[in-house]
Amino acid sequence: MSLMDFFVNALKEICTPQGILFVIGGTLAGMILGAIPGLGSSTLMVILLPISYKLDAAMAMALFISITIGGMSGGCIGSILLGIPGTSSSLVTVFDGYEFTKQGQPSRALSAAVVANFLGNVPSIILAIVACRAVGTWAVKLGPWEYAALCFCAVLMVVGLSKGNMVKSMIGVGIAIFMASVGEDPINASGRFLFFNRLEFLDGFNIISVMLGLFAAKIILLEYARQDKQNNQLDVKVEGFRFPLADFLKNKWLILRSWITGAFIGFLPGLGGPVASVMAYSNEKMLAKDKSKWGHGEIGGVFACETANNAAIGGALIPLLALGIPGDAAAVQFIAALNIQGINVGPMFMREQPGIVYMIFTGALLSGIIVFAFQTLGMKTFPAILKIPYHFLYSSVILLAFIGAYMSTNSFFGLLVAIFCCVLGIVFDYFQIPSLPFLMAYILSPMLELNIRRGLNYSPNGIAEFFRRPLSCTFIVAGIAVLIYGFVSPVIKRKLQKNKEAK
Amino acid sequence: MDEKSKKNRILGVISLGLSIWITYLSLNLKATGYEGDPGPSMFPLIGAVILAACGIAMIVAPGKKEGTFLTKEQWKAGGKMFCMYLLLALLLYLFGFLGAVPVMLFIITYMLSGLSLSDKTPKQRLITSLIFGIVGGIVLYLLYVKVLDAKMPEGIILKMLSK
């Protein structure tokens, strides 16, 4: 089948009442939750995970990618109108976007953000389509040694490139490895760590329950504890969309550079939209002739952040679909949703499940267009989105999360795991342990263990085989290099800063 | 010792303790007997080594002080919400989906409405939450049980009564 045939088939499936409902509904729901500070579209995806097993796998993926695109595009609304980012990816949009609202020009910033969203995500999906085919052809040649090394590299990259204390990220990885070890041994299927001799542990900690606890339950608990969801007295009048032609032409090269930054950062495991937007903003501010305007209402700042974080979506799809390596938390949810359907994501995914892969691409492209259409036509309704009453939304999310946790295992064990992971999430936040390295290590651990042990079983050279194979050795060295860079770079930066101050 | 360094040292001690516990559990696992296979204990032991190394690092170099995570009042509020989670799990176990969902939807909505409907009187909030609890409960029942045909907890008390 040719590329076109796959797209035509995917379009046929989406052009059913159910498909249209999923793509449009998913995009709008993602956008609304993405706009509301605190929750984010990932919460919606997590609570939909348990019911996704009732859906066709391809349709479920179309729904999830629509939510992702909608969520990323909606994040800017809260940033610009409230000065509070809807998602962490739109954090930097606040710096300049909110300044326009304070100056009485929210529509200018919103129009720029809407255009940037579209220019960020749609071309990045096209890049993903081209790159996935190339990487997927190469990926099928990977043996257990290379694949284990790739998983190892991905986990170390998340730790090495993530913000915050790296030792704490590694503690998260250690805990994830232990938690992922609970259950059946991947080689001989014997029980491992069956606490209190309970057979419920044989299936391990279900990823859905883990995410429901770690995201939905913990987020709402902390939001309630901090009591920062007071009645929103937003009183901003937003005019309709006006294509920001002059702003666009002035910033066309900035948009291109930010797009490249976003797509590249998205490709790297564990970074995603938040880092992409910060990197693009910093780069552009550094390159700007007049830096004094930045942070005080520079439209280039809005373009840079929103183009980069949306471009990261396409970038993250490449390792996910071609290699089975999640780039960010949303990609972890994709893997979990596919696992529910009994589909394992790995180097063979592109070859074995082309229907699902192209459904994701088609859904993403359509969602990008839908979100652009809605944001241009419905810009006046943006303030209303931010007035959605939290008490209805949050209480529903809690109930859906707990029902979902029960459904994930069809027993109270799933529910108890969710409560345990909620506590674990709070402990992580208390000690400032980032959740993403934990989550990445947790989802990759089964594949990592299986491939390490297969690699050791298949070769008489034992562990040395991992270093004798060029690709496997490269991945291991790259992972370790990134980790060392992560440890060393802050020390070097501090020393340079001290030297600068001394001079 | 400032707050942050104390907190990080505690984290270091916990990591070290966890590492020792995982090592003990892992060493009690039986080998697979396959030639070349390091056995089921290898992978968790890797986790234990990581935790031990990071635990020691945290104890030796705990870092600087940073802002407070939650105030005493915030901990209390968080604890209240956590109790709601436990109550929800308990009610689901005892009374099943039908008994627990509308009640908990009402209670949690009322709790949260104190934040987002602070301009309304308690009576108005109570009525709104009650209506939402009942309507929401019915909608969720129809969605999960009728549309999705999902198996929901029946509740041991309701099960006993139906017998």
Structure description:
Chain A has 503 residues and is mainly alpha-helical. Chain A has one domain (3-228, 246-502). Chain A is 74% helix and 1% strand. Chain A contains 22 helices and 2 strands. In chain A, strand 1 (183-184) and strand 2 form a beta hairpin. The longest helix of chain A is centred in the N-terminal third of the chain and has 34 residues, at 106-139. Chain A starts with a helix and ends with a helix. The model of chain A has no long low-confidence stretch (mean pLDDT 87). With 163 residues, chain B is mainly α. Chain B has 2 domains: 3-60; 72-162, no CATH class. In chain B, helix 3 (72-116) crosses helix 5 (156-162). At the A-B interface, helix 8, helix 9, helix 18, helix 19 and helix 20 of A face helix 1, helix 2, helix 3 and helix 4 of B.
CA-based gyration radius of chain B: 24 Å
Q: Secondary-structure element order of chain B, as H and E?
A: HHHHH
Spell out the helices and strands of chain A N to C: HHHHHHHHEEHHHHHHHHHHHHHH
Largest sheet of chain A: 2 strands, antiparallel
Task: Please give the radius of gyration of chain A in angstroms.
Answer: 22 Å
pLDDT < 50 stretches of chain A: none
Please count the helical segments of chain B: 5
Oligomer: heterodimer
Number of strands of chain B: 0
Largest sheet of chain B: none
Helical amount among residues of chain B, as a percent range? Answer: over 70%
Q: In percent terms, what proportion of residues of chain B is strand?
A: under 5%
How much is the average pLDDT of chain B?
88
